[in-house]
Amino acid sequence: MIYLDNAATTFPKPNEVLDALDKANRNAFNTGRGSYKVAANGSVLIENVREKIRKISNMKDADVIFTSSATQSLNDIILGLNYNKGDNIYISPFEHNSIIRALEVVKNKYELNVLTIPFNTESWIPDYNMLENMFAINRPKAIFISHISNVTGLILPYKNIFSLGKKYNSINLLDSSQAFGVVEVENNSNIDFLVFAGHKSLYASFGIAGFVKKNTVELNKFIFGGNGSDTMNPNMPDNGHMAYEAGSPNIVAISGLNASIDWLQKTKVYEKELDATHYLINSLKQLNNVKLYLPEDYENKIFGVVSIGIDKYSADEVGSILNDEFDIAVRTGFHCAPLVHDFIGSKMYNGTVRISLNYFNTFEDIDYLISALKTL
Questions:
Q1: How many CA atoms lie within 13 A of 145 on its CB side?
Q2: What's the 3-state SS for 49-74?
Q3: N or C: which end of the chain has fewer CB within 10 A?
């Protein structure tokens, strides 16, 4: 199989990660619940991984909270913030349903205004003059933005948007599920929350994700239970990661994440994936029946993910042909990101054929994909 669905989850995983997962499955014990050595070693490992996440995010004094998925992380944050009636929340046209659906809950509960940041449909750059006027008239309570679009591969200009929002004391959330660990996090002084997903760009397994949280913004808690500390207190702790982590930590998945971070730090993933992205785009541009969803001057804007449409075919039809006749795995449809398809105009194809790369993909994989698309 030629696997080109890495935006859903990276595959394969590095051997170091698979070895760590196997070892942990065979030898791991519940951490924070025992005074014996193997339990204590697990607790040390978890804290070491927390520190590695802080370093990657360049948010050294922040809390790192582990969750089971980026979806849970986004729900913890969006549902945990304090809102007032009429607050204004800003999102981009590229957001995933993990943000949109959680936001819909608080929008209806608190009568919030959800506003979409205006992007130019040719350049895919925000209209900053219009946005500044919007912020001045409807001050942003919070801004929720993806680091990289899971549909188009666009690296969103969150740095500029967050800087503008901070003039109005906005709470800024960066969903870095598609980027964290590979693409550098910049301008972190204006990021209040950063969400990561272990099974995507971090090359770890399912079951481990989380968010980095600055101490300047508090969240309401809605998951309660034991965490191995302050047992006689019926209330959850007020501060630090312990306030938001209840239940037994997934030491197996965290062990895999520990190994994946070490692998990423010694491997030139960004450089190889960027080269493959450019090679893929240049190859697709040679096909006359392919609609490429790209902005003007795309070279420095797109990373790892490319969406296309094929003349006379729906996206699902293309995916089925690639799977059935060529054993190529791509993702098709709307990709849990409803707003972007109006923005790029892909509804005519019933969504897009999404091609997403990782470190292990080769130019030969791309050549094989191109040869398959030429048959359509």
A1: 28
A2: HHHHHHHHHCCCCCEEEEECCHHHHH
A3: N
- Predicted local distance difference test score (pLDDT) of residue 61: 85
Computed over its alpha carbons, how large is the radius of gyration of the chain?
21
Q: At how many degrees (to 10) do helices 158-166 and 128-137 cross?
A: 30
Do 242 and 100 contact (CB within 8 A), yes or no? no
- What single-letter amino acid sits at 27? N
Domain count, the chain: 2
Closest residue by Cα to residue 308 from 338, 286, 275, 336: 286
Helix, strand, or coil here: 164? helix
Question: Which of helix, strand or coil describes residue 220?
Answer: coil
Distance separating alpha carbons of residues 55 and 369, to the nearest angstrom: 37
Contact indicator for 150, 141 with CB cutoff of 8 Å = no
**Residue of 175, 218, 215 lying closest to 197 (CA atoms):** 175
Residue 136 and residue 154 share a domain: yes
Residue 361 maps to which CATH number? 3.90.1150.10
CB 245 within 8 A of CB 65: yes
Tally DSSP H helices, then E strands, for the chain. 11, 13
Do 210 and 113 fall into the same domain?
Answer: yes
Q: What does the pLDDT look like over 267-295, one tens digit per residue? A: 999 999 999 999 999 999 999 999 999 99
pLDDT at 60: 84
pLDDT value at position 212? 97
pLDDT of residue 108: 97
Neighbours of 234 (CB within 10 A): 7
Per-residue confidence (pLDDT) for residue 354, from 0 to 100: 98
Nearest to 196 by CA among 182, 211, 206, 186: 211
Whether 282 and 354 share a structural domain:
yes
* Same domain, yes or no: 188 and 330: no
- Tell me, yes or no, whether 104 and 233 share the same domain: yes
> Which pairing describes strands 352-356 and 331-333: parallel, antiparallel, or unpaired?
antiparallel
Distances (CA, A) of 155 to 148, 269, 302, 350: 5, 16, 6, 24
Range of the domain at 205: 15-265
